[in-house]
Specification:
about 575 residues; mainly alpha; MetI-like fold; about 70% helix
């Protein structure tokens, strides 16, 4: 039987049934079915036998490297993120507010742009290695980022922010009375952190660790440009697909999906648990000011060094964007600068085409995500039909599917006509990329709307119903204005993520619909560094504008970052 009292406030019985059917068909058709096709293709015993024919096989090494880099990324990102969060929580010193804002900067860099910045700055032909070589008169560069350690450093730089965000929020909820009692009993700062503070951080640390491990396992861009001859699961998927061995690519995809799915289940289980909160006798402890003495200068020095480290990659991209094509070869720094790279973006149709393609495809995908995400969230939170929990789990599933795997799913599913593609072969068509963007970003708007609806007070709907308002009118005038900022923030984050999407794009694009990210890599491969950097700056500017808009809406933009 239906609970008509609650349903009648927003959804009629037949509306709910209709929405349930539509949402279920979309999720089954474009999330579940392609994944099942992957299972059919990838579960072939002969393919698995080839994958793990010996302990020295490339795929075994790829699995080992992926796990090693993920564990190391968790350790490195955790050390940096927790340390920064603690320093900004516990102490007050010069440049603190500036540093606290800059500490979140790496999350705003699209993966390809961040890796590109490291390549220009620390690669074999990068600015710093050649500067050191010139300074000391060496015959060759003394160091260069490459291999596993380069991938690890890129991961730490881009992923420590998850520990920084999660632990920063946990620090704000600490009970000042517990710290005061610890210090009154003579405990040192180190012992207080170990026995009082860290146990209360443990839930945040575990959540961030699970998230970073899963994202690191699915990482593609850093291994592609820095790993060299080292094997990774994501690279194996890409290489097998490129060589036409779709069965082997599907097998590796299946393995990687299973690993990521385990961590998604752990994350969701962790988030669903209700952690008991310690009874508070006071407010959060104030920061300890550092006004004078050597500690002040040490804090200022650390602040300046941190600013330089955080800003160097971004400033490098901006500098290179003004480089004239072919003018930067063996020199430490570019010698000739020009505005032509930016003028071409605006005035030359063939140069602007990737930008227009990305804007068009990101808009289509975001519109689909907006319609689907809001509808699905309303159905799941305000509906009463059984099975809504299953739909919720499936809607979150794309979060656990790496971009390389989503690409293989779509290739396997849409390389022949089907009702899902209206009888068309989508592989090699324009629509493959918008579809991939839509599937990848289903969790973003869906979860943003879900969170807003779960905190919505149904008494407002009851009041509007008592005053004679219909369901549609109540949704437009009562519900939508309340959850609107969350929906808008999720939509903007979805749009900007789709705009810089690289992982699925590199496996699915054709020349006519090549997006910005693929064009950046193309320009890099022909050594047109200025054009590649100009495209990157364009993406960074759009992300910065989006972040400002999201903050203006009063919604924490960090809530959507984890979905990548």
């Amino acid at each position: 039987m239906f609970n008509s009292d609650r349903r009648s406030l927003l959804l009629s019985r037949w509306t709910e049934v209709g929405l349930f059917v539509v949402i279920a068909l979309v999720l089954i058709g474009y999330v579940v079915y392609p994944s099942l096709r992957l299972v059919v293709e990838g579960a072939d015993l002969d393919s698995f036998a080839k994958l793990f024919s010996s302990w020295a096989s490339a795929n075994v090494r790829a699995l080992g490297n992926s796990i090693w880099i993920s564990v190391a990324s968790v350790a490195g990102a955790g050390l940096v993120g927790i340390t920064l969060a603690y320093i900004f929580f516990r102490f007050s010193f010069p440049l603190k507010k500036t540093l606290a804002s800059l500490a979140a900067l790496p999350i705003a860099l699209p993966p390809l742009v961040g890796v590109l910045a490291f390549l220009f700055l620390y690669g074999e032909s990068g600015i710093l290695p050649r500067a050191v070589q010139h300074l000391f008169g060496l015959e060759s560069v003394p160091f260069a980022f490459s291999g596993l350690w380069a991938v690890w450093l890129v991961h730490v730089y881009s992923m420590y922010v998850f520990f920084y965000f999660f632990c920063g929020a946990a620090f704000k909820n600490l009970d000042r009375s517990l710290l005061d009692a610890s210090y009154d009993l003579g405990a040192s700062h180190a012992r207080t952190f170990r026995q009082i503070i860290f146990p209360q951080l443990r839930p945040a640390v575990i959540s961030a660790s699970l998230l970073v491990f899963m994202i690191s396992m699915a990482s593609f861009t850093a291994p592609l440009l820095f790993a060299g001859s080292k094997n990774f699961l994501t690279l194996q998927i890409y290489n097998y697909k490129t060589n036409g061995e779709l069965g082997l690519s599907a097998s590796v995809s299946l393995l990687l999906t299973c690993i990521c799915l385990v961590f998604l289940v752990l994350i969701e289980w962790k988030n669903s648990r209700k952690h008991s909160q310690t009874a508070s006798k006071g407010s959060s402890p104030p920061a300890v000011p550092i006004h004078k003495g050597p500690a002040r200068y040490l804090a200022l020095f650390i602040g300046i060094v941190s600013v330089v480290i955080l800003l160097f990659p971004i400033l490098t991209i901006i500098l290179i964007s003004f480089v004239q094509e072919g003018s930067w070869t063996y020199q430490i720094l570019p010698q000739q600068f020009t505005f032509d790279n930016y003028i071409s973006l605006l005035l030359q149709p063939e140069v602007a085409e990737p930008i227009l393609n990305s804007l068009k495809m990101a808009t289509i995908a975001t519109a689909g995500n907006l319609l689907f995400g809001v509808t699905a969230a309303v159905l799941i939170v305000k509906g009463q039909l059984p099975g809504r929990g299953i739909l919720r789990a499936i809607a979150i599933l794309p979060f656990a599917i790496p971009g390389t795997v989503i690409a293989i799913n779509l290739i396997v599913t849409f390389n022949q006509p089907s009702p899902l593609s209206m009888g068309q072969i989508l592989v090699g068509s324009f629509w493959m990329l918008p579809l991939a963007y839509f599937i990848r970003h289903i969790p973003l708007i869906f979860r943003a709307t879900l969170a807003a609806l779960e905190s919505f007070d149904d008494r407002y709907l009851e009041a509007s119903s008592d005053l004679g308002a219909g369901r549609l009118f109540a949704f437009r005038k009562v519900v939508l204005p309340t959850i609107g900022p969350g929906i808008a923030a999720g939509s903007l984050l979805t749009f900007i993520t789709a705009l810089g999407e690289f992982v699925s794009s590199i496996m699915l694009y054709v020349f006519d619909n090549r997006p910005i990210s693929v064009e950046i890599l193309s320009q890099l491969r022909i050594y047109n560094f200025g054009a590649a950097a100009a495209y990157s700056v364009f993406l960074m500017v759009l992300i910065a504008l989006t972040t400002l808009i999201v903050r203006h809406l009063g919604v924490d933009s960090r809530s959507g970052t984890a979905a990548f």
